[in-house]
Amino acid sequence: MHGGTETLFLVEHFFSIQGEGRYSGVPSIFLRFGGCNLRCPGFGRYETEGRSIRGCDTIRAVHANLYGERWHAVASVEELEEVVAGYLEGLSYRPDIVITGGEPMLYAEHPVFYRFIEKLTKSGFRITIETNGTIAPALDRFGAYTEVTFALAVKLSCSAETPRRRIVPEAISTLARRTKESFFKFTLSRELAEESGAAEIEAICSGYGNEIYCMPLGDCESELRRHAPAVASFCLRHGYRYSDRLHVRLWNREEKR
Question: What is the pTM assigned to this prediction?
Answer without folding.
Answer: 0.94
